[in-house]
Amino acid sequence: MNKNPMGQKRRVCVIGAGTAGLCALKNSLESGMDAVAYERGTEIGGTWIFSEDMPKNDYDEVHSSMYEGLRTNLPKEVMGYPDYAYDNDIEDSFITSHEVLNFLRSYAEHFKLGPHIKLQHEVIRVRPRLDDWEVYVWDHSTNTCDPVYYDFVYVCNGHYTEPDVPEVEGADLYEGKLMHSHLYRRADKFKDENVLIIGAGPSGMDITNHVRREAKHVYLSHHLATAPNTAFMGNVTQKPDVERLTKNGALFKDGSSECFDHVLFCTGYKYTFPCLSTDVGIQVIDNFVQPLWKHCININNPTMAFIGLPFNVIPTHIFDMQVRFTLAFFTGQRELPPREQMIAELEKEIGQRWDCGFYNRKKAHQMGERQFDYYNELARMAGIDNIKPVILKLMKDCGKKYIFELDTYRSNRYTIVDDENFLKNGKIAN
Ligand code: FAD
User: Fold this and answer.
1) What's this model's pTM, rounded to 2 decimal places?
2) How far apart are CA 306 and CA 296, in angstroms?
3) Of 76, 99, 318, 417, which has the most beta carbons under 10 Å away?
4) Ligand 1 within 6 A of 203 CB?
């Protein structure tokens, strides 16, 4: 099955060489496939590349949302791949973006991925043919664009670069500055300003903690059911959702109003796949990418897989699992269920999410507590190794800390003892 009818190795195209793309490339090569990863940037690493570059015009894009001083919100002990962990020489568990980037470089080096990665090669169009995929790749260095043909496509283009900015009433009247966290780079830009930060997800909370050190005052607008502990944030006032923006501030849902100089939207990102033609058969409606089987296989063209769409997960481990899951089918070790069954399973899962009342389309790929069942399901269906219990336990220990223990949790140090146990600050934890 790893050979096509002409006796050639099966060809795999990986779009992107970030954490997910590197993993798809490595596992495809190990499965005996002829795999190539196309990366539009000048280096591998995606999200973890810090750059001060700003868009030069309306059509220009900036490819990373990384900012100065970021320390990871998960410990490095859960950010490695199952077969390639972080070096224990790094003492801290919550590490810098440079350390993550170095780790990804060493992963690529260790598995000798370099010869299979084409930098400055941007996939600009993917179209299904009768038996394979036509992929147009633009080589930035020669400014040429040629079609290449593949049996399988892994879409690993990341989903933290296209800002999702909600429509806010009065935005046209507001005369102050506006920014989305995608272009936030350093806190000193907000020196002595009054700032409104909208959103209290991982980015909103962390950026609040950075900006408040430079700003005169920060208003943090959110609708979390339980308000974050703000004892450490002397110059931060929590606010409910914005009712409408005004000329120099905002009116909030509780009737209060404030004036500020800058609005910083930490309202998340949109999934976008600009290089996929419509006949790929994938639609994104309100951030629900469909129709996908098990959040990764394109039901309309099941030789294409999307890696890394679920959020509130253990990113690197879920990427690796989705890749091994899909390869079980791509290599013929497992047979895909009929299309009708995949559609029925998708509808059932989405129905269950809707029934919870809490979910909407925007949260179609949110996992949270569901992630553990998801991992079990992938492992069972594809006959692959599950994520080790110690990783899952450690992940549970870290959950929501970015909201309720933001000021202290990054000083925790974890050590993995064995497949089941870990130490937290030198003591056995459960
Ligand atoms: P990316 O890293 O975005 O990589 C996608 C790659 O695809 C990029 O290199 C891009 O240039 C390339 N590409 C896109 N389109 C094309 C194309 N058409 N042709 C060729 N190449 C293309 N996760 C954690 O586990 N811990 C954390 O602490 C953490 N902190 C985060 C902080 C921030 C500010 C952000 C934004 C994310 C954070 N994440 C964190 C999530 C993190 O993004 C993921 O863990 C992971 O790095 C995503 O990897 P990816 O490969 O899916 O996407």
Assistant:
1) 0.96
2) 5
3) 318
4) yes
